[in-house]
Design goal:
With 379 residues, this protein is α/β, with parallel strands linked by helices. The chain contains twelve helices and twelve strands. It comes from Paenibacillus timonensis.
Length: 379
């Protein structure tokens, strides 16, 4: 078995899995309790916040732990919209964003806000000029992801952030960083990003925990009312075992980023060269995309057929984003990029991890060539 679906979720580090078990067994006190067990848990929470902040290059008080990036994205978009409703009710995002962003924006529209959904080019990119042109006096938030989870398109988030701080400093800038952290460099402090969401399980951490970076000085309307945990932004008893494990995964992802990125780019190049030799396939990922995601289509064939053939050979890939892989309609991301319905209905995503080696890529390509031949014979 070779797992090529890291963009959906990642196998946890062994040390991270051990951390969950150890902390769960030994430090079960509620961090809000005043007795010794509670104080021990509170200290672990504080340390995890410090480690996470150091990995992101921000202040510990700017870290809000959540249940995952979907919650973080909802918190950012709705929290800004509700907090600044008196200033304006206009939001800007891109057509290829993750569902947790697009559906949050659509929900705000159903509640009376207005939104501009920016189109993308053939590579899936928006431009700084597009964002600038969409700004209105009543715009309160721009949300653009760092790396697209389906195609690996890298958006110019640093340039957008710097433009916003110069042209419209009162407009908040949110970035879904799920696919970018640990793969590409991004300075939150220098890029004008106000809000940045992450999910642990995309970084070889546990599922069910994430964070939202909230720039100091920015106030959000909380979505969850209750005991006032996480600075009042996210009430509910903190999941100490998962948060501690998440902070360890974050640290490991940050420390190994440069070497990981170099290796993944080398593997990506080997994979795309092999795909180019299969004339039946169409590569949808841009040449200058993220190091770990390669998306291609086999026009005229059902993606599920190719996926299951590869699975029979011991290779696990996906058809698109995990959040929409069970839907039968064409990929909305590929359609937004101008791809035909035939191409958008037959996509396969391969997403790499740091455990992969060149022989794994070669084995995948061999299985892919064999599967393509089998499908041709069935036509």
């Amino acid at each position: 078995m070779i797992y090529f679906d890291h963009a959906a979720t990642t196998p946890p580090y062994e040390d991270v899995a051990k951390t969950v078990a150890e902390v769960m067994a030994r430090h079960y006190g509620n961090p809000s309790s005043l007795h010794r067990l509670g104080e021990e848990s509170a200290k672990l929470l504080d340390k995890a916040r410090e480690v996470s902040a150091a990995a992101l290059g921000v202040r510990p008080r700017e870290i809000v732990f959540t249940g995952g990036a979907t919650e973080s994205n909802n918190m950012a978009i709705k929290g800004v919209a509700l907090q600044f409703a008196g200033r304006g009710k206009h939001l800007i995002t891109a057509a290829t964003e993750h569902p947790s962003v697009l559906e949050s924006v659509k929900q705000m529209v159903s509640w009376g806000w207005e939104a501009t959904i920016l189109p993308v080019d053939g590579d899936g990119c928006v431009t700084v000029d597009q964002v600038r042109a969409a700004l209105r006096p009543d715009t309160v938030l721009v949300s653009v992801m760092h790396i697209n989870n389906e195609t690996g398109t890298v958006q110019p988030v640093e340039e957008i952030g710097r433009m916003l701080k110069t042209v419209a400093p009162r407009v908040m800038f949110h970035v879904d960083g799920v696919q970018g952290f640990g793969k590409l460099p991004l300075s939150l402090a220098d890029s004008g990003i106000d809000l940045y969401g992450l999910s642990a399980h995309k970084l070889r951490g546990p599922k069910g925990v994430g964070l939202l970076y909230v720039r100091e000085g920015l106030q959000l309307a909380p979505l969850l009312a209750g005991g006032g945990q996480e600075g009042g932004y996210r009430s509910g008893t903190e999941n100490i075992p998962y948060i501690v494990a998440f902070s360890k995964a974050l640290r490991l992802a940050a420390e190994g980023r440069e070497a990981r990125s170099t290796k993944l780019y080398r593997l990506r190049e080997r994979l795309t060269r092999g795909l180019a030799e299969l004339t039946e396939l169409t590569v949808n990922s841009p040449a200058q995309g993220a190091p770990h995601i390669v998306h291609f289509s086999y026009p005229g064939m059902k993606a599920e057929a190719l996926l299951h053939m590869l699975e029979e050979e011991g290779f696990f890939v996906s058809t698109r984003s995990a959040c929409s892989s069970k839907r039968s309609e064409p990929s909305r991301v590929l359609l937004a990029m101008g791809k035909s319905k035939e191409v958008a209905s037959s996509g396969i995503r391969i997403s790499l991890g740091d455990e992969h080696e060149e022989q794994d890529i070669d084995a995948l390509l061999a299985a892919l060539r064999q599967s393509v031949k089998r499908l041709q014979a069935l036509r």
